[in-house]
Design goal:
Length: 399
Amino acid sequence: MHDLAGAWRRTAQGAGLLAPDGSSRPTIFAEMSALAARTGAINLGQGFPDEDGPAVVLDAARDAIAHGVNQYPPGRGILDLRVAITEHQKRFYGLTLDPERDVLVTAGATEALSATLLALIAGPEDEVVVFEPFYDSYAACVALAGARLVTVPLRRPDFQPDLDDLRRAVTDRTRLILVNDPHNPTGAVFSAEVRSEVVRLAERHDAVIVTDEVYEHLVFRDAHVPLSTLPGAWERTLTISSAGKTFSTTGWKIGWVSGPAFLIDAVLAVKQFLTYVNGAPFQPAIATGLRLPDAFFRGVADELRVKRDLLGAGLRAAGFEVSVPQGSYFTVAAIPTDEGTDAADFCRSLPERAGVVAIPLTAFVTPERRAEYSRLVRFAACKRIDVLEDAASRLAVLA
């Protein structure tokens, strides 16, 4: 029993779940949300909207509950949702998928990612390449799957990777290249050159590409381009997305993974022992959402672009150096020069000083690179206009 406990502690520490002394480690998100609750600060830290999604989607969920869609759905997900996902991929990206074989519904994108890593990582010799900063669950999932995390840095102002860094990172030990595009936390949208190089390196080193595309409809300039649409990419790419960001239903946790049937079968073999299934009445509701007209999807991006610009203007007026995001909920900014060099300390003091909560970018990087990102802070723009205006007014005390 003691050996089992010790082994678990070592694994959990490697995944960032425990502090070095073995105590439980609350996430920075929990810490900042508690600060927001205690101080009454506006929470621009966590990436969830403060408005409901389309009424037709919410009504479809209520209708499903009222008509008995309340028990276990099929293991792969309700067929109509899988069909709607394939229709969406065809409509927006020209991809033709088989809803019976090429799509798996999951408990959000995070379960899709976890099941994929657990399914495809063979052992400690395997490496997973990610772009850093990265969504915080990536490192934990890689560690729990028993692989080694290899990072490629993204740096201001545009947060595009250096292609030579990428080439050095991807080797014959690379099992997976994990690409989050549009990118959380930086708001970057990767260039065509980056996308092409990812595919070329995956082919050269026989790696699987796993894409996290939950912000696919929140792109502010050119249309989103999935890696799976590039020549030679489909047969080695698993595409992950979810409903939460597009339809403002983050609490429903309806996600999916799509790709070649042999890879989907591997993910299903693991997923069935995680949640098995979830969200029965929400699945037909998301099918309804995915069939909304193109104008809805354009409107989602247009509305968030206005909020991005409002937040950015408020941050600049308060003395921040703002990197303009090309997608996602998020804006990254460097703290004012007279505020020191530690964004984590700055974020812990900000609720009391200005009544606003943000997240230091060091929450999304490995310990070795924290110094490079120590002045950077992430703010979420996915709030009501009046909330963002209030936040900008409060931050003006820093100027």
